[in-house]
Design goal:
single chain, alpha/beta, Rossmann fold, six-stranded mixed sheet, 22 helices, 11 strands, globular, binds 6-O-phosphono-beta-D-fructofuranose
Length: 535
């Protein structure tokens, strides 16, 4: 194995896994289920209200044992301690990855110039002041709208938390997000908003992101349509790691909230980047979100691997990629509040582990991150599930279900739909069963091949007892740690993202110096120019 934690023991553990892969590649999970009465208890874990069922994965007890051996052989326990101990695991940028310290003061680095705990309290105090109308705009009007500018990690996490936890019809300011460059997005977000009653949050860790800075300039102009230059500062908040630049833009020093360099954008919802969510859900709910994530951190750090939710999920993911050659991972939330989870997870996973070299710069010898996709359910059932049933590919699936604490009949139906899909996608329908069905329906049995569903789509199901701040915090931290474990086992640095810079460089060159990268780009620019002024 070509990993930074590569040892003879780890290589041996990877080879042992190959043997199980050969054995199980052609197996059907329904048969594994039938052969082992104790499968469900052995392939499910209950922890702090969460129920994690991985019995529908195409692996058996010896394969699972081999995966757990791999985790030990690859020195995962040491990796976890290095992560929590603040080791500079992001070696290409010479920094630790300590996002967990944003939810656990005990993990804060001792030598920091900034008091991060005090900073969080400042954020939550601002949250309370805005939500209660104590803090108003320059003309004395309470804030009715919060405009949150930011993209990638500076948008996806807070948007997800807002959608999952904000109450409809709350008598608190409405949060609207703007991420991209299409002016239509900003127009929609500003519809019905008034500068005097709008607070603008500009979140950009680097304060150099084209989309966010262009939106910030446009919104500044919009604010100026009503407010004076002197009043502007009372409507602006900046979240970034370069305060001087935010100040230069016109944000008052006391309204600039710093970000530590050791919190990556895609892991930053727990930090000041979470401010839109704090404002949407309130300080108590945000504290509960942090506590839920912290509880998952402790579970991850201390639970034995055989009971450790993020470790198990990571090992199962690895198995699906390496043993079963599955290229994609679909995330299927059966909860309206989790509709943005696939997008958040897409960045978390693909930006972290979408890498082709190991920590020492040598090529990886195995595939790294899967292609992550998915969407809110049950809409997917009526759209892309067809391919899962009868297409030619296998996808690894995560079903996310939420309990029914209010005994709502529709909530129950929704969860039942998810349970049924996981079962149907595993069992499938045989040719014989298809024929029998057609005969029973008085139809031509020759149509049977069109009704066959091979099943055997591997899935895990995670059930949250309710969509509360605590359980949402657990869920997001669960995925963060899963991604870390996989990166560690592949021996890659999960915390940099140099790849995304190439496209940014080309866009800058194209815009600033008119440099054409190739004839295709020249032709497109010509067509674009032809379109201009022709509305
Ligand atoms: O271009 C990718 C990226 O740097 C992400 O890693 C990040 O979450 C996003 O852009 C936004 O970056 P920033 O917060 O610096 O504007």
């Amino acid at each position: 194995m070509n990993t930074s934690v590569s040892t003879n023991t780890a290589e041996h553990a990877w080879r042992a896994l190959d043997k199980h892969a050969e054995r199980l590649r052609g197996a059907h999970t329904a048969a594994l289920f039938a052969a082992d009465e104790a499968r469900l208890p052995a392939f499910s874990v209950t922890h702090d209200g969460l129920y994690f069922d991985f019995s529908r994965q195409r692996l058996d007890a010896p394969a699972l044992a081999a995966l757990l051996d791999l985790a030990d052989a690859a020195r995962l326990p040491q990796g976890i301690e290095q992560l929590f101990g603040g080791a500079r695991l992001n070696h290409t940028e010479n920094r630790p990855a300590l996002h967990m310290a944003m939810r656990d003061d005990a993990l804060l680095p001792a030598n920091s110039d900034t008091d991060w705990a005090a900073n969080r309290e400042r954020l939550l105090a601002l949250t309370d002041a805005v939500r209660t109308g104590q803090l108003c705009g320059a003309t004395g009007e309470p804030f009715a709208h919060i405009l949150a500018l930011g993209i990638g990690g500076s948008e996806l996490g807070p948007r997800l938390v807002c959608e999952a936890l904000a109450q409809p019809n709350a008598r608190t300011p409405q949060v609207r997000f703007v991420a991209g460059l299409d002016p239509a997005e900003l127009t929609f977000a500003l519809a019905g908003a008034h500068p005097e009653r709008t607070l603008v949050l500009i979140a950009s860790k680097s304060w150099s992101t084209l989309e966010t800075l262009e939106n910030a300039r446009a919104v500044r102009q919009w604010l100026r349509s009503t407010l004076s230059e002197a009043q502007l500062a009372q409507h602006l908040v900046a979240i970034c790691s370069v305060p001087a630049q935010a100040h230069e833009f016109g944000v008052a020093a006391e309204r600039i909230f710093p970000l530590p360099e050791w919190v990556g954008g895609r892991f930053s919802v727990w930090s000041a980047v979470g401010l839109p969510a704090m404002l949407a859900v309130g300080s108590d709910a945000f504290r509960a979100l942090l506590a839920g994530a912290q509880a998952m951190d402790r579970h991850f750090r201390h639970a034995p691997f055989a009971q450790n939710l993020p470790v198990l999920a990571a090992l199962i993911g690895l198995w699906n990629i390496h043993a079963l050659n599955i290229e994609t991972h679909a995330v299927l939330p059966y909860a309206h509040g989790l509709r943005s989870l696939p997008a958040w997870l897409q960045q978390l996973d693909m930006e972290s582990n979408g890498k082709r070299v190991t920590r020492d710069g040598t090529p990886v010898t195995l595939h790294s991150a899967p292609i992550v996709w998915g969407g809110a359910e049950p809409a997917g059932q009526h759209a892309f599930h067809q391919l899962l049933y009868q297409g030619t590919r296998t996808a690894a699936l995560d079903f996310l279900l939420v309990g029914n604490p209010h005994n709502h009949p529709m909530q129950r139906l929704l969860a039942e739909c998810g349970i049924a899909q996981a079962a149907a996608l595993m069992h499938g329908r045989s040719l014989d069963a298809a024929r029998a069905l057609l005969v029973q329906q008085g139809k031509d049995p020759a149509l049977a091949p069109h009704l066959v569903c091979p099943g055997n789509q591997p899935s895990s199901t995670l059930l949250l007892p309710a969509l509360t701040p605590h359980h949402l915090g657990q869920l997001l931290a669960f995925y963060e740690h899963k991604i870390f474990v996989q990166g560690w086992l592949w021996g890659i640095n999960s915390f940099d993202q140099f790849g995304v810079e190439l496209g940014k460089e080309m866009a800058r060159a194209l815009h600033n110096t008119n440099r054409r990268p190739d004839p295709a780009a020249t032709a497109l620019l010509t067509a674009l120019a032809r379109s201009e002024g022709k509305a």
